[in-house]
Amino acid sequence: MKEEKIMKESNVEYRTTKEIVEGIVRNAARYSNFEYKSIYKEVTKQMFYCVKKNDSQAIYELKITKKVRSTGERLKADNNNANRDSEKQDFLMSLYYILVSVFKNVNFHDGNVLISDNNNDYIISMIKKSGLSWTNPYEKKTVADT
User: Fold this and answer.
1) Can you give the pTM of this predicted structure?
2) CA distance to 11, 14, 72, 112, 116, per residue, from 107 (Å)
3) At what angle are helices 17-26 and 86-100 packed, to 10 degrees?
4) pLDDT (tens place) for every residue of the chain, 146 residues total
5) Which is nearest to 98 in space by CA: 113, 87, 85, 111?
6) Hey, where are the domains in the chain?
7) Contacts of 136 (CB under 8 A, 6+ apart)
8) 115 close to 21: Cβ distance less than 8 angstroms
9) What is the spatial order of strands in the sheet that 59-68 belongs to?
10) What SS3 class is residue 18?
11) Burial, 120: exposed, middle or buried (Cβ in 10 Å; 0-12, 13-18, 19+)?
12) Tens digit of each residue's pLDDT (9 = 90 or more) over 102-121
């Protein structure tokens, strides 16, 4: 109770693990050769958090899945960082090196990044999306763009 009162009176911002990871991914261009973009699909009314390699056309949706530990057991890391898709593996390795400096328990599990904090496990995975466009159809083109 006393600890909760101190947190409310403090000027320190508290962020969840998911918010921190999303912030790191938004700055993908700073630590990898990938770009980040939020893509909204009007038809399905969905927002996708995507990355794309600078010299590629492939778009990947980044998923952060929270696995709540109901039984108290952590998800076992298998340290398998291999992926059939080399672009996916490149980004996850770049992300892994940043996350290791931020969180205590970061490993690989089935080719995805696994973060284990005090209460939950987070799996960071990438899914190749074929129905998304990197360019915004609503952007106005300037004379210099044509």
Assistant:
1) 0.78
2) 32, 24, 19, 9, 8
3) 120
4) 545 555 566 666 677 888 999 999 999 999 999 999 999 888 888 889 999 999 999 999 999 998 877 777 778 888 888 889 999 999 999 999 999 999 999 999 999 999 988 888 999 999 999 888 888 655 544 444 44
5) 113
6) 2-136
7) none
8) yes
9) 34-41, 46-53, 59-68, 120-129, 112-116, 105-109
10) helix
11) middle
12) 999 999 999 999 998 888 89
Instruction: Measure Cα distances from 56 to 18, 21, 51, 64, 120 in Å.
Output: 27, 24, 11, 23, 34
Residue type, 85: D
The encoded tokens of residue 104 equal 């205590």
The identity of residue 33, as a single letter, is N
